[in-house]
Amino acid sequence: MKIHEYNEMMAYLTRPGMRTGGKIIGKPGGLVEPGVTNYGAEIYRTNKGYGPEISTEKNVKKGFIYPKKTQLGEVRWSQNPGGTTRPIRYDFTKKAPIPEMDTSRFKFDIAKNKWVYLSRAEDGSVAKPTSHVSSIVEKADNETFKQFIKRITGRRDEGRERGLKKKIDAITDARNKVDAWTTKWLDENLGKHGIRNSKKFFNKLKEDYKKFVDKTFKTRTVSGINLFSLDDFPNVSRSLTETLKPYEYGGIKTVNIGKRGAPTQRLTKADLSGTKTKLTKNPVKRIDNEGYFKRIFFKNSVEKTPGFLDDLKEYFNYITTNKRTVAGREAFKNFIPNKDVVYFLDSNKSGLDDTIKGDVMVSLGD
User: Over the stretch 321-337, which tens digit does the pLDDT of each residue have?
Assistant: First the structure.
């Protein structure tokens, strides 16, 4: 035995957890080391039940088929653990017959004496050597390696389609639940807050929505889709697909393709009426949603607060009338504007930027 082999063996036998002492086989003399070692053969082992046997040569019949490199870069062959849980043995050194099979998924099953493929299970996980046989695809005796590859590719494509459909169904179901809850909540709560209480309205919306998500989904994401917008509002649908349409409330959509102030997408897509529109932003990208709910809140406040819309029209008439004329001075000499109207139009007070305020005004009609 060479000195580096001896040192390597001793490091292995005296590792933490090893028992000391034992029978010495073929020892050429010298001190007694801990563990059990066969010095006269190509195999040395630890005490029974403590670690695998290791060989300097591969021996399939004896189970030495798992290569392990030492710190010195030498190859040692270990025996797989026995017992009822012994996994199927694969020859990891057998060269793949064709380049397409040169992946970690293809293995040569020694017990079956044939090539097998570790396929993905229904849940998308990869079969492991200890997995049941149904998750492993065997090469048939009457098919070529090319045909084997083609069969596996077909199975993989079918699995991907099933997985994609399952993901789309989960996303669609989650989106529909979020949209339905948001509509119901807005129906029940829009009239409870005056136009000056927008912050309380938004905080209540986020608070109640979080409770809904925790109870219904118990997670913030479904199939990779975050149920919350970046600012923790309901992430209502902004999709343009056959199964999902942009969310809409009170005539205000999350995506109004071709309309002023509308979110857009880089690709050209057909809108609901079939018109092609060039877009510059992604309508399904996760964004802040406070602006969208501001449009809904303030439009509802203007339309549903008694007398507010008339006061708004009167105020616009006031600021657009030339009061230098006698008629103008006479018409508005005693005019006192509605304070809520002034609040709504003052961006510093209402928090409405010009784009959102303009969208609200346009949504009110002529």
Answer: 887 787 777 777 778 88
Entry pTM? 0.56
Nearest-5° Cα angle at 182, 179 to 187: 125
> Of all helices (H) and strands (E), which one includes residue 5?
helix 3-13
Residue 68: beta bridge partners? 76
Q: What is the pLDDT of residues 72-96, one digit of tens each?
A: 777 777 776 444 445 557 777 788 8
Interacting residues of 165 by C-beta distance below 8 A, sequence separation 6+: none
Work out whether the CA dihedral 30, 34, 38, 44 comes out positive or negative: negative
User: In 136-245, which residue ranges form alpha helices assigned H by DSSP?
Assistant: 145-189, 198-216
pLDDT grade for 173, boundaries at 50, 70 and 90: very high
Inter-residue contact 190 to 297 (CB < 8 Å): yes
Contact 76, 68 (CB under 8 A): yes
Can you tell me the distance from the alpha carbon of 272 to that of 217, in angstroms, rounded to the nearest whole number? 30
Q: What is the rounded (10 degree) CA torsion for 158, 162, 168, 170?
A: -170
Question: Dihedral angle at the C-alpha atoms of 261, 262, 268, 273, nearest 10 degrees?
Answer: -120
pLDDT of residue 265: 39
Integer CA distances (angstroms), 130 to 57, 63, 122, 318, in order: 25, 17, 17, 82
